């Protein structure tokens, strides 16, 4: 086996070292770290924007349903359409955050489908109270999913949420309880879900959920 000449080895090393030396001399490492810092900032800001937007959307849905309920004794006027969900802010991690973005878009689609479903009940022209009940159930289902997705965005970037006031805490628990109750009693093969369902039902009873006793 013929050993390479020392001069040839030196030339090879020089060819390999030149790009690296240029990278270091030109501040390549510093620029690389700056890009990573900028990406982390973008991701944090986008996650916060999406999380707070989703949480506010859940609150807005509850407020809409409450306004409709307040109008029931006087037969309206009612709102028969849920507000749309604005587009998600992009985090900059197209591949790593693909599942979150898809879940967000699925939620947007569910809002549109809920409004379409409510429109099938004539939006008050024939049986407005059936439309209100449909809107009610879909609103709390979407609201609970929005809160869960907001929590997922915060976990994704390790962002802790500020402690909630008692009123906000109770409201979010009510939204989740309504979604769990409206989904119906789970199978006995899912004991933990059954326990959560019973607890949600008890809390709703204490909260005075007026249609609670009308379920079979």
Helix segment count? 6
Task: Round the mean pLDDT to the nearest integer and report it.
Answer: 82
How many strand segments?
Answer: 0
Q: Residue ranges: pLDDT <50 for 5 or more in a row? A: none
- Which structural class do the helices and strands define? mainly alpha
**Shape from CA axes?**
elongated
Give the proportion of residues in helices: 55-70%
Taking the alpha carbons of the first and last residues, their distance comes to 89 Å
Question: How much of the residues is beta strand, in percent?
Answer: under 5%
Alpha carbon gyration radius: 27 Å
What is the makeup of the main sheet? Answer: none
**H/E order of the elements?**
HHHHHH
Topology:
Elements: H1 6-25, H2 28-71, H3 98-119, H4 128-157, H5 166-182, H6 191-207
Structure write-up:
By secondary structure, this protein is mostly helical. 69% of the residues lie in helices and 0% in strands.
List its salient traits.
216 residues, mainly alpha
What's the short story on this structure?
Helices cover 69% and strands 0% of the residues. With 216 residues, it is an all-alpha fold.
């Amino acid at each position: 086996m013929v050993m390479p000449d020392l001069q040839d080895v030196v030339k090879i090393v020089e060819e390999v070292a030149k790009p690296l030396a240029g990278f270091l001399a030109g501040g390549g490492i510093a620029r690389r770290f700056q890009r990573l810092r900028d990406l982390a900032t973008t991701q944090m800001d986008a996650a916060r924007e999406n999380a707070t937007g989703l949480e506010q959307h859940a609150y807005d849905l509850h407020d809409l349903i409450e306004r409709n309920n307040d109008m029931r004794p006087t037969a309206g006027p009612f709102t028969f359409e849920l507000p749309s969900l604005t587009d998600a802010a992009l985090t900059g991690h197209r591949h790593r955050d693909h599942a979150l973005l898809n879940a967000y878009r699925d939620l947007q689609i569910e809002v549109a489908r809920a409004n379409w479903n409510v429109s099938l009940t004539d939006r008050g022209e024939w049986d407005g109270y059936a439309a209100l009940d449909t809107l009610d159930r879909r609103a709390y289902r979407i609201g609970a999913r929005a809160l869960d997705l907001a929590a997922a965005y915060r976990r994704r970037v390790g962002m802790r949420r500020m402690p909630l006031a008692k009123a906000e805490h109770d409201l979010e628990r009510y939204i989740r309880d309504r979604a769990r109750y409206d989904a119906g009693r789970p199978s006995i093969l899912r004991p933990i879900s059954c326990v959560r369902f019973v607890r949600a039902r008890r809390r709703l009873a204490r909260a005075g959920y007026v249609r609670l006793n009308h379920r079979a």
